[in-house]
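Two proteins, back to back. First:
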Amino acid sequence: MPLLLWVCHAAWTQELSIETSDSSGVIMVSASADMRVQPATAWSVISDYDHLADFLPNMRSSRVVQRNGNQLVLEQTGVFGFLFFQQPIQVRLAVTESPPRRIVAHAVGGNLKQMDGSYTLETLPDGKVRLSYAGRLLPDFTIPPLVGKLVVRKILARQFVALVGEILRREARAAPQTPPAQAQ
């Protein structure tokens, strides 16, 4: 069942949809947000690897350790947790960029058995930009069975909402400021 959220920021109202499911321990997630932003703003946020920890909850560090054109290696650390459940995360990702539309990442190290994800940007006919995320995650640790789906859903929703929020903040900063009307 999708989680629908409405996010208000400045003059924009955005609809987000986040779905999670699991099968044999593999967690699948898909999320999307339609925003009134410039595609370049959205791209600059999703590809700002060295600053992701500044605005994504539970991420402690994120840094590019190697780059060769549109291929890079990214190391990230953080905490996967909710209430009483806390699990440190370390992941090394092989990332392929296809600017300005797509980023694909695949775990090549760390404490995730499997992690594959992609971000896609699409300009819609009404001028909005759709940010979509699709991912598969197989942790190398046990997630408590009774709260596992809830934990995953809350963490992923918080991170996606934070990503969209940062896109909107940067768009608002980049928008030309209209001076107040002069009184006559």
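And the second protein:
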Amino acid sequence: MYLWLVFIHSISAMVSIGPFFALIPMLKKLRASEGAVYEAYLDSFTFAVRLSKHAGHVLVFSGLLLMWLGDWPWNTPWIFGTFVVLFLSLFFMARAFSPTIRLLRKQEPNRTVLLNKLSRALYLYLTVLFIMLWLMIMKPLFW
């Protein structure tokens, strides 16, 4: 059972990080697109964010099960650090993508500013995800 949970945890980590890499080249195309193509790119962006969010739910649940079955305490440095970063990233993700995508759908006149904001959010969120990934893989001992 434990090994299957590790597998599920690993797959959900890949699914929660992977879609964001498809969005990097899409940002450039989003800047140059119009009409139905523009809407399709925004739909793809929304789908990737939702997929990542739901995979993140599986990731957290499987991680909690792994902690329980593996008898890992909450105060283990890499677990505590991961949960701190995860908690902070939840606030970030809730405000970073969906409100900006909603404004882009309204065809706001400051499209370039909004796309720059979306681009910054994408790279910042990838950085946060990689910090959590580093904590989970390297398991550093901070104390």
